[in-house]
Design brief:
- The complex is a heterodimer.
- Chain A has 4 helices and 11 strands, in the order E-E-E-H-E-E-H-E-E-H-E-E-H-E-E.
- Chain A is an alpha+beta fold.
- Among the domains of chain A are: about 55-130, Alpha-Beta Plaits; about 135-205, ACT-like. Chain A, domain 2 (Alpha-Beta Plaits).
- Chain B is about 35% helix and about 15% strand.
- In chain B, strand 3 (about 95-100), helix 4 (about 105-120) and strand 4 (about 125-130) form a beta-alpha-beta unit.
- The chains are: A alpha+beta, B alpha/beta.
- At the A-B interface, strand 1, helix 1 and helix 2 of A face helix 11 and helix 15 of B.
Chain lengths: ~220, ~600
Amino acid sequence: MSEEVPHPNPDSEAPDHEGAGMPGPGPDERPHPDGRRNEQGIRIDPEAAAEPPVERVTLSALVKNDPGVLARVSGLFSRRQFNIESLTVGPIEDGEHSRITVVVEEHAPGVEQIKKQLRKLVPVVSVCELEPEAMERELALIKVDGEAPDRIGAVAEMYGGKTVDASRETVTVEVTGSQQKVEGAIATFEQFGVREICRTGAAALERGSLTTEQE
Amino acid sequence: MSERATPRDPANRAEPADEGADAPTDQEPIEVTSGATAVVRALEDAGATAAFGVQGGAIMPVYDALYDSSIKHVMMAHEQGAAHAADAYGVVAGEPGVCLATSGPGATNLVTGIADANMDSDAVLALTGQVPSDMVGSDAFQETDTIGITTPITKHNYFASSPDRIGDQVGEAFALSETGRPGPTVVDLPKDVTGAETAREPGPPRVPETSVPQREADADGVRLAARAVERAEKPVCLFGGGVIKGDACEEARSFAREYGIPVVTTMPGIGTFPEDDDLCLEWAGMHGTGYANMAITHTDLLVAVGTRFDDRLTGGVDTFAPEAEVIHVDIDPAEISKNVHADYPLVGDAGLVLEQLSAELDRSPDAREWREQCRAWQEEYPMTYSAPKDEPLKPQFVVEAFDEATAADTIVTTGVGQHQMWASQFWQYTEPRTWVSSHGLGTMGYGLPAAIGARLAADQQGEEDRDVVCFDGDGSFLMTQQGLSVAVREEMDITVAVLNNEYIGMVRQWQDAFFDGRRMAADYNWIPEFDKLAEAFGARGWRVDSYDEVAETVDAALDYDGPSVVDFHVDPEENVYPMVSSGGANGQFALTEDQL
């Protein structure tokens, strides 16, 4: 080893090792703890690491009718890679606010993170996670070949739907209900030859006197 | 060194048009006659004293209004520099920094600086010009969707659509940027709106009611956290940048000292706790000290305050503080359990919550053995480097030389890369707001414009004697060196120390470690002579190649009352250690390349 330059900081001494790097026990010579965290940063039993299950959750956000508010909300979902199943927006009774209903598929820590990130947006007044028994409705317009109008009408009736348009070639039916019911209806109408479908996302409110502002 | 005429020589200098701008307090507020004057009036009312920017078509009405204002405007050479300067100004001054740019390229050039402020939670207000309202959406000359572009990188942004509301929006944007968890805000200002007549004076700056932060933590949560502190055997305080932003350094220091808890900081948290204190283990993470990373790895209780558990701090989350309960104090609820699960979430203001926690604590944790263990790690993993005199100059030596030659209140700014790590490792920080760097975004080129902003903030606080030292890499300096023209024109006393290894050094280090030494696009092969470049700008320049020249050149550069650049040609093969590989375990930090 050649002559060492005295360090200007008197507390720091030149190391007594050769070559590049720093002195000290290497990684293999150090004690290492046994503990682990999972992907969500939660301490786990390494023997029984379980991923939290993904749930289907409906969130209801009350937002100010500011320009661009929908872009802010939808941009947040894509930016942070939150899995979104549907998003519905419409004005509420006061004319100054809108309600955005979002159905997401995430594990519980992910749902918490979505709620917190939504609340950080300035035009967002409140965000709540709806109870599993909340009222939730989707709407679908299903346009099918019109060759069997009677049978189409019967199926529509079975699903509590109604015919909203009929021409020589097509019949269009409106079905409203839970996601499962709408999907069931679509599957049934396929026998008539589905030409086009348009579906909304979910509109949802809590049951009884509970409101979406209370959580 | 030749003595050259520079703008610093009175004979060679144009009279500044804004002679009165240095005396901001005794000037009348600007009269509101237009949207633009309302903008400036709102800035004045909010307490803004400085702004950094670049002129251009769509922002001209606002600049015209600034002509009559007491706000000190610094004309920058590039909008990115304006945003960084405003950011650093805000960090040093403890108030939002303001930057301005025109529409289109002006706004897009700001974007890097805005994103940088967003990642580091720095309060910055950016005002951008926009094409006239009726041309928005028509792809007009110098039109960009500034709101669309900046939405993901701001706390919030505003499109001004009415001259009567524009002042309120600017005031709100200013207030919002510094409220709760700080961050950047943007107000986009169409030229017809700033040009339109109005006499409406803006109201007082108001934070939107949906953004008022929770200040005190839930009392039950505090009680539970206090019990966790009392029973801990291996506690660590982890202080992040939020402690500085919340002006809670005093509370943080008393907390750790009163309960005898070793302190680790994050990189943005440098300065929260004095590094010469026995309890301080300095900062943890990818290039943090071995002892900080050992403490973080083996602790049984992390008292984390104002940190977002960035991946450069945690390494792989699976191995981060794997046996620790976590108390997480943060004013942003969304940071709680985002990356690392908080066993004791305490949402609130850092200082207030620490006081709440203190009030609830009946005794100190029994951590004597743990403190001894931490001290033993300090002995075991000293932050040293080998500096044989027959080898090229070591960059760490240059950092230590500047630290020796300057006072404790010296402000250090940096670019991003190896030099940044050495500047944070080998300088002993004892005060908050003296370490000004780009952490989360990792923006090469941050250092010089940040030094400009920091210099102005110190000067405006009457601290003209404080030194501002910018450690830069050759690569970082190349990215924003045009800022030297600003520093010379504004007669700013800053010293730039380029730790020049003629490489994008951190990339070169990674290529050697992880890409079989294939040094693709990391070697500059040829690099300008930065001392001569400095002289061409009208600054002073030196070149240093050997240990013998370091001390006297450092003194000369610091003594020079103006911008100076010292081009230190350092060992091109020097690497930064310790190093935790990306996504690796903090406790597995490498001390040499073969350990990676």
